[in-house]
């Protein structure tokens, strides 16, 4: 009986444990089912988010170690199960552990649900942004296709323009070559025509001289023949006491003197008148033919005004439109009554300076290139111009066409100056030569080879000074073919101006400075600089005043700058008259007026 009771008690104990074990297994299955739903939800979320690695880890974790259970919890459970199997007193402990486990699982479930909600919200936002980016991508793709189409059109247009430009370039090269050939033919034809004209003039002069000699010989022979005939002719003289004869008074001793008749003029009056006519004809013939030694109309020098004190310019006196394009040169005549301007339109205009106004007097035509410099001869009757057509040309005031052309340079002639007389001139060119000319013969009598472009020249009594592109000023002796002095400056020399007493030289250079050189010591005496002054080009001209009291130059902004030689300071600035760079300035020999020209086609008269 006792054994049966013991076995019954044992079975009850074993059933109780099995019951607990079944409940625990049922709880595990329920919890596992819950987590399987969560795992499926996570799998869907990760599939949408392309997070496969995270899904694999989450599955492994959900099977092996459910969320919310730590390693310490498992250890506790294992100990609890051992305690349950050992004793019944551990039921409360297991219950508490179970409740804590449930609370942990519920907490973990809530956290995971909240995370799922947050991730769903983020996913929806990402999907909306992705859709927006897709729309933007489609719009940009359309714009890209439109731009690509436009690029292809522009590329085709550029290729067409390139082909057209190449064709135009070839046509331009052909036209330029043709122009060069025609210009060379024209120059050769002009030289040939000039030679033929000179030959014709020489032939006419020789023929006229021979005719004059024949006429003179014939007149002399006729005169000698008439003299011989007159010497052979006899004249009868009658002794009469009348008005045609004269009686001599009686001698002092009372005797009568015999009558002393004189030769009657009636017999020889006609022949003497004819002889006088012959002589008068000879003299008149010489005067008519112009065989005198000098021609007063040509060799007469005008009265040059003497400048005691130059008046610095302060205001604009007159403004005239001088040329159709840029004006490069301006010059006053020696008597200060004329102003000459020359520009790129290949014309020289002469202006009368009357009462502070400019009156158009004459236009000299026939220049073969742009005018770079102008110069009056000492008499003021001739104008010498340097041109871009590799030549210098000579005009006579009052005649429209040029009188002489000086050819021989191979590049642009940048300067042309008279010597002390109108029969000699000096030219400088970019072909690195300086030439001296005999204007009476129209030939070059000397060529000086230099080492750089020549931008300007001036002439003294026995020296020629040249300014060059290599930042030097060179002095040449007119009596010997050698360079006597070289003065370096800090910039390209653009112009030279010789003082009236030939003791100082004013140079303008591209370092934006004017330098005064003492020609006795051959050193730089003064340097003029100013804020705002900038040399506009390689042809900017600066000048001395006639009394050598001031230095004047134009700037690239159209302002005139005036320095005092005595103090070395800036005396005045004259803005407003020019709207662009000033190329050249000129001071009248009387000291009363200043002329300035530039790129704005106008000539400005200052006083």
Entry keywords:
single chain; 607 residues; alpha+beta; Methylamine Dehydrogenase, Chain H; 2 domains; 4-stranded antiparallel sheet; 40% helix; elongated; WD repeat; Protein Atg16l2
How does the SSE layout of this entry go?
Layout: H1 2-49, H2 52-64, H3 71-86, H4 91-232, H5 269-289, H6 296-299, E1 316-321, E2 327-332, E3 338-343, E4 348-354, E5 357-364, E6 371-376, E7 382-387, E8 391-396, E9 404-407, E10 413-418, E11 424-429, E12 433-438, E13 443-449, E14 454-459, E15 463-468, E16 472-477, E17 483-488, E18 493-498, E19 504-509, E20 513-518, E21 523-528, E22 542-544, E23 550-554, E24 560-564, E25 570-574, E26 582-587, E27 594-598, E28 602-606
Helix pairs in contact: 1-2, 1-4, 3-4, 4-5
Protein name: Protein Atg16l2
Pfam families: ATG16, WD40
Family: Belongs to the WD repeat ATG16 family.
């Amino acid at each position: 009986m006792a054994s049966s009771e013991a076995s019954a008690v044992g079975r009850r104990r074993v059933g109780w444990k099995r019951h607990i074990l079944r409940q625990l297994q049922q709880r595990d299955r329920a919890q596992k089912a819950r987590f399987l739903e969560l795992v499926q939800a996570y799998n869907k979320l990760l599939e949408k988010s392309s997070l496969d690695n995270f899904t694999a880890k989450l599955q492994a974790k959900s099977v092996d170690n459910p969320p919310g259970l730590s390693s310490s919890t498992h250890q506790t459970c294992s100990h609890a199960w051992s305690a349950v199997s050992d004793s019944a007193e551990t039921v409360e402990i297991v219950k508490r552990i179970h409740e804590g486990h449930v609370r942990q699982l519920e907490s973990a479930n809530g956290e995971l649900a909240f995370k799922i909600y947050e991730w769903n919200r983020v996913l929806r936002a990402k999907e909306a942004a992705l859709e927006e980016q897709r729309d933007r991508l489609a719009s940009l793709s359309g714009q890209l296709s439109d731009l690509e189409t436009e690029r292809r059109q522009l590329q085709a247009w550029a290729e067409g323009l390139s082909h057209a430009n190449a064709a135009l370039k070839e046509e331009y090269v052909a036209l330029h070559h043709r122009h060069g050939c025609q210009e060379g033919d024209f120059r050769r034809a002009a030289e040939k025509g000039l030679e033929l004209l000179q030959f014709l003039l020489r032939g006419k002069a020789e023929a006229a001289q021979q005719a004059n000699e024949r006429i003179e010989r014939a007149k002399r022979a006729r005169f000698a023949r008439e003299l011989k005939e007159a010497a052979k002719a006899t004249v009868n003289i009658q002794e009469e006491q009348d008005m045609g004869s004269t009686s001599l008074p009686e001698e002092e001793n009372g005797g009568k003197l015999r009558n002393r008749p004189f030769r009657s003029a009636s017999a020889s009056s006609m022949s003497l008148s004819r002889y006088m006519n012959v002589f008068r004809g000879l003299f008149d013939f010489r005067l008519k033919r112009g065989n005198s030694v000098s021609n007063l109309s040509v060799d007469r020098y005008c009265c040059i005004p003497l400048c005691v004190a130059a008046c610095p310019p302060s205001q604009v006196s007159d403004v005239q439109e001088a040329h159709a394009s840029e004006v490069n040169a301006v010059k006053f005549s020696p008597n200060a009554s004329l102003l000459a301007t020359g520009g790129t339109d290949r014309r020289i205009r002469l202006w009368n300076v009357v009462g502070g106004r400019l009156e158009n007097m004459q236009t000299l035509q026939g220049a073969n290139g742009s005018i770079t410099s102008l110069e009056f001869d000492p008499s003021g009757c001739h104008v010498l111009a340097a041109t871009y057509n590799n030549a210098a040309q000579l005009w006579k005031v009052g005649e429209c066409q040029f009188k002489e052309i000086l050819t021989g340079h191979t590049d642009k002639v940048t300067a042309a100056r008279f010597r002390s007389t109108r029969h000699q001139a000096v030219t400088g060119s970019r072909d690195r030569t300086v030439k001296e000319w005999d204007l009476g013969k129209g030939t070059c009598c000397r060529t000086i080879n230099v080492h750089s472009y020549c931008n300007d020249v001036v002439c003294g009594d026995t020296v020629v000074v040249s300014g060059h592109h290599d930042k030097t000023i060179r002095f040449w002796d007119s009596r010997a073919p050698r360079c006597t002095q070289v003065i370096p400056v800090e910039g390209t020399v653009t112009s030279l101006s010789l003082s009236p007493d030939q003791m100082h030289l004013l140079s303008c250079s591209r370092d934006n400075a004017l330098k005064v050189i003492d020609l006795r010591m051959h050193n730089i005496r003064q340097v003029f600089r100013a804020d705002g002054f900038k040399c506009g080009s390689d042809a900017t001209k600066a000048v001395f005043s006639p009394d050598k009291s001031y230095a004047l130059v134009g700037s690239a902004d159209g302002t005139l700058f005036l320095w005092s030689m005595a103090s070395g300071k800036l005396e005045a600035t004259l803005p407003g008259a020019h709207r662009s760079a000033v190329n050249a300035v000129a001071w009248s020999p009387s000291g009363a007026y200043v002329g300035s020209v530039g790129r704005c086609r106008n000539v400005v008269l200052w006083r």
